[in-house]
Every structure is written in structure tokens, then in C-alpha cells.
Amino acid sequence: MAHGNDAHDLVAANRILVDQGVLDAFGHVSVRLGPGSDRFLLSRNLAPGLVTAADLLVHDLDGTPEGDQRPYLERFIHAEIYRARPDVLAVVHSHSPAVVPFSVVDVPLRAVLHMAGFLAARPTPVFEIREYAGDASDLLITSAELGRGLARTLDTGAVALMRGHGSVAVGASLREAVYRAVYTEINARAQAEAMALGTPTYLTPGEGASADATVGSQVDRAWGVWRDRVSTPATPEAGSAR
Ligand code: MN
Fold it and tell me: Is residue 74 among the annotated active site residues?
């Protein structure tokens, strides 16, 4: 299979994100085909828990996939973030449930955990689709223009929320993007619990940067544990008739 390692890891990432409660029947994860590449790998339109290597499609930065299989409606999220952010090698878009409330209130999502130092640089921005699509849209990122708007909101950050919809998390590797998506959900849960008790003390940007540098070397440990919990289907042998 072409793009063997990327494909193998992307299938695992889909299943990990379902197992960790970040993706459900919806949402998606992609990986850029190497630093500087203008192509990325993303499943065809399919629930993430069912994705196999045979379902992965190479897309270009216009969001156009090779072949004639039906792509995800919101592939422009990935395409326009890769276009705007050469440093980004992987993107997760999810509707993870503890994060969504922070997209609809005037309290920003902020880092309360040392494991979420990547959230500490700024109050997490929220993409308001009404600024681009009026007040009767379906809230989905179904065009390059909306994808560009979301990429502008993300700016140089690791995470952006989408009002009434979900979020995106990006990373310099697939494992980092997966890690950030999982810990964005965990941090959101912890922040809401802390706010129910009292007024949280948030990590400073300096603490976040230091914690992120330390934790960054632990991303592989998290991946290993999460990877061990999920099974991935065997890749069909090349040339098999299946
Ligand atoms: Mn969505």
C-alpha cells in the first residue's frame, strides 16, 4: 500500500481517538505526506471507527481527493490549515463533548493542567461561522473560504474552537496532534469541574511553554498506551483479490 507508515499510523489514530472519546461517528484526522508536502492523507467519508488503510485518500490543498470515492464534507478544514501552516503535519477535527460548551460561552478554554501546556499561550480562540456564512448556515466547514476563516482563527496556535460545533487540534506530528486532541478534552473537563468549585488558577504562558517542552518528550508514551488499547485490521496483502 502506498504511504505505508503514514497509512498504518493514521488508521491507528482514528481508532485511538474513538477509544479516547474524542471522535464518535463523526470527526476526522489527517496527516500531511511529509514536511513541505502539499498533499495529505484523510479517510473517505466514513465513521472514524471503521477506517482501514484501504479507505485513505490522498487530498491536495484544494481539498480535492484522488479517485472518485466520496470525501468528507469538511475536508476544507484540513486543506486550509495545511496551506496556512507549513509547520503543521497533522490535524484532528472533533466534536469532543467537554470542549463544545467552551465554544458557546464567554469563558475561554484555558490550560488548567500541566499536560495541556499547549493551551496556555492564549485564551483559546473561537471561530464564529456567522461572520462568514450568516445566521442560517449548517455550521459545517464546507468550502475553502470557510476553511480559510477557521485557519485565520487558529492563527499560530495549537487549538481553535468552532462555536456550537467542535474544535481543531494541530501538531508537528500525527502523535502530537492526537495527544493535543485528547488532552484538550481532558483539560476542558477539568476546567469545568474547577469552575464548579471556585475560581481556577490557570497556567501562565511561560509555565505552559515549559510544561509543553517537558511533556513533548512523553507524547510517544501516551501513543504507546493508547495504541495498545485498540486493534487495527490487518492490511490486505498487495495484489490480493479482496
Ligand atoms: Mn464537524
Answer: yes
d(CA 51, ligand 1 centre) in Å? 17
Measure CA 24 to chain center. Answer: 13
Distance 167 CA to ligand 1 centre (A): 8
pLDDT for 242 beyond 80: no
Provide the pLDDT for residue 238.
45
Does this model's pTM top 0.70? My answer is yes
Q: Is 230 helix (H, G, I), strand (E, B) or coil?
A: coil
Reported as half-sphere exposure (CB side, CA atoms, 13 A), residue 33 has a value of: 17
CA of 74 to the centre of ligand 1 (A): 7
* Gap between the Cα atoms of 156 and 127, Å rounded: 14
Rounded mean pLDDT of 144-169?
98
Pick the catalytic residue from 74, 80, 176, 185. Answer: 74
* All domains of the chain in start order, with CATH: 4-229 (3.40.225.10)
